[in-house]
Design goal:
- The structure holds two protein chains of two kinds.
- Chain A has 16 helices and 19 strands.
- Chain A is an alpha+beta fold.
- Chain A has a domain at about 100-330 and about 360-415 and about 455-485: tRNA-splicing ligase RtcB (Alpha-Beta Complex), CATH 3.90.1860.10.
- In chain A, the strands form four sheets. In chain A, strands 7, 8, 9, 11, 15, 16, 18 and 19 form an eight-stranded mixed beta sheet that branches. In chain A, strands 1-2-3-4-5-13-12 form a seven-stranded mixed beta sheet, with helices on both faces. A two-stranded antiparallel ribbon of chain A has the order 6-10.
- By secondary structure, chain B is α+β, with helices and mostly antiparallel strands.
- Chain B has one domain (about 5-140): Archease, Possible Chaperone, Chain: A, domain 1 (3-Layer(bab) Sandwich).
- Chain B is about 25% helix and about 40% strand.
- Chain B has helices at about 25-40, 60-80; strands spanning about 5, 15-20, 50-55, 80-90, 95-105, 120, 125-130, 135-140.
- In chain B, strands 1, 2, 6, 7 and 8 form a five-stranded antiparallel beta sheet that branches. In chain B, strands 3-5-4 form a three-stranded antiparallel beta sheet, with helices on one face.
- The relative contact order of chain B is 0.26.
- Classes of the chains: A alpha+beta, B alpha+beta.
- Chains A and B meet through helix 8, helix 10, helix 13 and helix 15 of A and helix 2 and strand 6 of B.
């Protein structure tokens, strides 16, 4: 195949290696998880971005890219990199700007037969009650102390204040909070951007989607049952958003701090967006604690939206959310760095695992899993495009062994926003989607065009790669029927 | 001379643009114009609000980064979109200084034709260069 450097070799059916000889300064090789089909279609810019990350001090084993990978800023989207917690670095640009952008999935016991006749009312009601788009204001008014508490306690704050059920807390990655959050490490500017945005979807690729389970799309019925997915036509809801202005401001602040820190610690990087500092340094620790605050706000943001979704269903279907069994399956983070224990050359080691547009994929039996999911493995929510579908999977031991317990986060873009906007008409797309049985509301038609299915890889290709590589196991593919686009 | 051009193949999930200016001041103004053009159809924005900002930084590039980040901050905290931006640059010892007069309007979700929300300015490929006849900046913003 043309324009793939010949040094990049296929190692097995779903693994490609970028050797250290690819670019001067690489400390470890790069690895891409992809079938030949996805690899051939992959944005070639990612090779350089994977190689650049491989140059950061303290990186372990491989600079990794998941099958939904595409070029990002600094680190590719779909990137995973782990650094020695004692001698390695932490890099804000390798976590991303939208800290703890993530997904949550909840079940209902309603079926498409009950929901279809009222679908438009439901989507319209959610569109009205869950703020989205440029300049949207939050639905929960809090003071400065309360906002500090939210940044410290995440989902627990929401539940304590009436926005959710007690069991929602445990059904989130890390129980919906990161313990090392320290609100004093967050600038006033970042707090000011975040304080009025609790309960907002935001914009870009963020969405809230009503989805249907079709019998033929259940890949593992026993696992699906454990997650409360039991019948053909069952309706589920997926929420995708993050820490909004708080995370972005915090990343902006620390990007500048780290540029100065790099001079101090004499670190050079091939792309300014990869600026980093030793994890153990004051700057590194400050960022780590601030990042946790934004992550906790993101967990809380999705929790408040979940609460609104339950209210919307109650309003439209005149039943309580409890009667409709609107249970949270799980909430996973896409953009975070966390200290985790992994085996390197047979020895346990503490690593700072950066996931940017990638998801944790812990296997059955992992000590961090709640009892409910000890046997199944961690639920993974793969957000696809609004036209093609999304998926629920579980983590595996193979992910733990080969990708630092990580997997893909979505289907991954193939077309740039600018190109999509230039070739697709948003209003036309909305009509075509409705003909296909997907009712979509948006605050921006140009924004809608940018999120068209044609701008993304096929979710089934990503699922196929994940199953074949064994770094996660698909449970069910979910098809969209209603979408609120941020 | 075009004020700015959006680039199709530089960034995939975010938006990249090149802005141009005969002077560095004009370059800064056109970067702001490009950014607000992504967020709103500027024809739908009136000049009802005025703001002034003053910034300083250790390099011209950092000053541009801080300037655009400040506009994003004002959009999120005060819901302001600016249609006209007038920039004056200076030097104070080793530091570069900026004063900007901004005019625009508070976001009105009915009146304004809104587009993408710019959430942050990245440093990916971030550069100011002097071309033959003008100054050029390449910016990638997070969407």
């Amino acid at each position: 195949m043309s324009n793939v450097p010949s040094v990049i070799k296929q190692i097995d059916e779903t693994t490609w290696e970028i050797p250290q000889t690819y670019k001067k300064g690489m400390l470890v090789p790069g690895r891409i998880i992809a079938t030949k089909k996805l690899f051939d279609a992959m944005d070639k810019e990612v090779f350089d971005q994977i190689a650049n990350v491989a140059m950061l001090p303290g990186i372990q084993k491989y600079s990794l890219a998941m099958p939904d990978c595409h070029r990002g800023y600094g680190m590719a989207i779909g990137g995973v990199a782990a650094f020695d917690a004692e001698t390695g670095v932490i890099s804000p640009g390798s976590v991303g700007f939208d800290l703890n952008c993530g997904m949550r999935l909840l079940t209902t016991n309603l079926t498409i037969k009950e929901v279809q006749p009222k679908l438009k009312d439901l989507v319209d009601h959610i569109f009205k009650t869950v703020p989205a788009g440029v300049g949207c204001k939050g639905i929960v008014k809090v003071n400065h102390q309360q906002f500090d508490d939210i940044m410290t306690d995440g989902v627990k704050w929401c539940v304590d204040n009436g926005y959710g059920w007690k069991e929602d807390i445990t059904r989130c990655e890390g129980k919906g909070k990161i313990d090392w959050a320290d609100a004093s490490k967050v600038s006033d500017k970042a707090k000011k951007r975040g304080i009025e945005q609790l309960g907002t979807l935001g914009s870009g690729n963020h969405y809230l989607e009503i989805q249907v389970v079709k019998k033929e799309n259940i890949h593992d019925a026993a696992l699906a049952k454990k997650f409360g997915i039991t019948q053909d036509g069952q309706i589920v809801v997926m929420i995708h958003c993050g820490s909004r202005g708080l995370g972005h401001q915090l990343a902006t602040d620390y990007l500048r701090t780290f540029e100065t820190a790099m001079q101090k610690y004499k670190i050079t990087v091939p792309d300014k967006e990869l600026s980093c500092a030793p994890f153990s340094s004051n700057e590194g620790q400050d960022y780590y604690k601030a990042m946790a605050c934004a992550a906790n706000m993101a967990f809380a943001n999705r929790q408040v939206i979940l609460h609104r979704v339950r209210e919307a269903f109650q309003h439209i279907f005149k039943q309580t959310p409890e009667a409709m069994e609107m249970n949270l399956i799980y909430d996973v983070a896409h953009n975070v760095a966390k200290v985790e224990e992994h085996r390197i050359d047979g020895k346990k080691k503490k690593l700072v695992v950066h996931r940017k547009g990638s998801t944790r994929a812990f296997p059955p039996g992992h000590p961090e899993l709640i009892p409910l999911y000890k046997e199944t493995g961690q639920p993974i929510i793969l957000g696809g495009s609004m036209e093609t579908g999304s998926a629920l999977l579980v983590g595996t031991q193979k992910a733990m062994d080969e990708t630092f317990g990580s997997t893909a986060h979505g289907s991954g873009r193939t077309m740039s926003r600018t190109a999509a906007k230039n070739t697709i008409d948003g209003k036309e797309l909305q009509k075509n989607m409705e003909k296909k049985g997907i009712y979509v509301r948006t605050t921006s038609y140009s924004g809608l065009a940018e999120e068209a299915g044609a701008a993304y890889k096929e979710i089934t290709d990503v699922l196929d790669t994940l199953n074949k590589s064994g770094i996660s196991k698909s449970v069910v593919l979910l098809r969209p029927i209603g979408n609120v686009k941020g | 001379m075009k004020h700015f051009v959006f680039l199709e193949d530089v960034s995939i999930a975010d938006i990249a643009f090149d802005a141009f200016g005969k002077t560095v001041e004009e370059l800064f103004e056109h970067c702001a114009e490009a950014m607000f053009t992504m967020m709103v159809n500027l024809k739908t924005v009136e000049l009802t609000v005025k703001r002034e900002i003053h910034l300083r930084a250790d390099s011209l590039e950092n000053l541009l980064y801080d300037f655009l980040s400040e506009l994003v901050y004002l959009k999120d905290t005060e819901l302001l979109l600016f249609k006209t931006v007038q920039v004056t640059l200076g030097k104070d010892g080793k530091e570069h200084t900026l004063s900007a007069e901004l005019q625009g309007e508070t976001i009105d979700r009915v009146k304004h034709e809104l587009g993408n929300d710019v959430k942050a300015i990245t440093k990916h490929l971030f550069a100011i260069t002097q071309e033959k006849t003008c100054y050029k900046a390449r910016i990638v913003v997070d969407i």
